[in-house]
Amino acid sequence: MAGARQPEPNQMSNTASGPLRLIVVTPERAVLDEAAEMVILPMIDGELGVQRGRAPLIGRLGAGELRLNSESGVTRWFIDAGFVQVRSNVVTVLTAKARPASEVTPEMVIAAANEAAALPATNAVERANKAKANDRASGLKRVADKNIGA
Asked: Exposed (0-12), middle (13-18) or buried (19+): which is 23, by Cβ within 10 Å?
C-alpha cells in the first residue's frame, strides 16, 4: 500500500530491562523519586506488588503503607488515598499526603480517629467524607502498629 504509514515502535510497552522507578507526588511537591526492585502499594482492596516489566495499570490507592524494596533495604512510607499509574517501569503515586512511616505516631492515629468520629454523616457526601477519614485513621493505625512492633 503506497503512502501507508509504518507503525512506530510501541513506546508504552513495559520491558524487563531498566530499573523500576518510584515517584510519589503530593500537591505540595514531589516527595520521593527512587529506583526500586519492588514497590508494594496499599490499594483500596488490598496490596499490590510491582516489579520491572509489570503491565501498565491505573488504580485507586487506599490509605496505608507503601514499601519500597531496593538494594539498600526496605523503606516504608504512609500515604493517603490517591491514584497510582504503572507504565514503562515507572510507578507514579499521586496522593494528598505522604510521610516516612517512622514519623507516624499513636497520637496521630488517635487524632485521625477522633476527627473521623466527629464528622457528620447525614447525607451521601458527608458519609463519603466520613468513610475516607475512617480509612485514613485505619491506614495510620496499621503503620503505627508496625512501628511499635519494629
From this structure: middle
The 8-class DSSP code of residue 101 comes to G
CB-based contact 61:93 (threshold 8 Å): yes
pTM: 0.83
Residue among 1, 5, 84 nearest 40 (CA): 84
Report the distance separating Cα 150 and Cα 147, nearest Å. 5
CA-nearest of 141, 139, 143, 23 to 81 is: 139
Q: Is 17 helix (H, G, I), strand (E, B) or coil?
A: coil
With a CB cutoff of 8 Å and minimum separation 6, the contacts of 35 are 19, 20, 21, 22, 70
pLDDT tens, position by position, 102-113: 999 999 999 999
pLDDT in tens, 51-69: 999 999 999 999 999 999 9
